[in-house]
Amino acid sequence: KDWKDRPERKPLILRGARQVGKTVSVQMFAQACFKDFIYLNLDDPEHEQLFRKPMSLEDFAQIIQLKFNKSMRDGETLLFIDEIQNSIPLMKLLRFFYEQRPGLHVVAAGSLLEAKIAQKGFSFPVGRVEYAYLYPLDFFEYLAAKGENEVLAYLRSVTLEKDIPAAIHEMASVLFNEYLIIGGMPEVVRVFLAERNFTALHRIYNSLFTSYLDDVYKYATEAKVKYLTHVLENAPLFAGQNVTYEHFAGATFRSREMGEAFDTLEKTMLIYRIKGTKDTALPLIPKRKKAAKIMFLDVGIVNYRLGIRDKLHQLLGVSGLNEAFRGRIAEQIVGQELLALGEDSPTQIYYWYRDVAGSTAEVDFILATGDRILPIEVKSGKSGRLRSLKEFVSGSGIKETLRIYSGALRKEKVQIDKIGFDLLSVPFYLLPRIKELAKLFGRA
After folding, report:
1. Residue 152 phi, psi (nearest 5)
2. Contact 114, 268 (CB under 8 A)
């Protein structure tokens, strides 16, 4: 809606992996805010064949009039071009919508957009389009979908000055653990809320993952399919872990082949590589030779691929899941929630490391926000050592640090080996507010 009402608006490119809800979101937007809606689905051969050759805006308008019996009216019509990567002529036409029809609202989307563009050697007209990013539902969106409006309103109102009652903390933790099991894919959430049955979700996960594997053939040459398929099948098994390309997941493939496969899958937004940095001040520069930490699109799919989801729904109590999710699943969900903060540009996330003889340390996430750096340590339980944060503080002079964990929201002063720093401990269920809470912490 902000984009709709901006006078200097450009055609909007909606980015996101397949099945995160791009098409439905735009359809709901059109119904709520426009008198008319023109929907082109370029995965539909009948639509795609209309736009295979270069054309002018006048040609385009005539095709729309004759094929769909509709006129494009500035301020009243939303034109939505779905899977736009299937038509280079329409991608090129976006600049002319901006230059010649700025009053018309144009949205384009494509699940395989960047991968197909890289394959075809094409790029969008610089300065003529703008972007928005869509991800699986975050925890607050899950609460809204479930109708937990009072819990959601309370969590949105929490401040650093008042303790969260123990009963509310446990209630929110159990809800988060439920979300942690099923994830945020819209169809999965819809089916779960309709049937309240974890077992019924298996076919949905299976269908989603199979569709991702089938998509590989749409943006890869036959020679590269095997590399992409191998990475896609195995990346969820390594979510939250540092990986090297050479012999990834036991394959005989070389580093170059695996690196290119990771590059391509990152363009489809199915995986994200969190790269290591030694920097403690902006700008954060990733170290190319340091192994990246892998995040997959959605924690529910990770649980499905690990084969642990069916066991976990028996452990919905807070303490049970603390133990079951110790380690990498905790990092996967934190990374996933941090990425979802990037609505108009991708969130830039790193991890920090120091690797010198006799002294190694690693902080799970480093988030650059504005002119600040937020070091974030993830602990699956309610406690845990904070020595890596201490090493970061010692080398950077930054005194404000964050911990994501299963305990209550609190701020405290910590001293380890004569190194003192301020620590904000944030429960997992407040992750969607992490930037806001960090800002409040900085003012305290």
Report:
1. -60, -45
2. yes
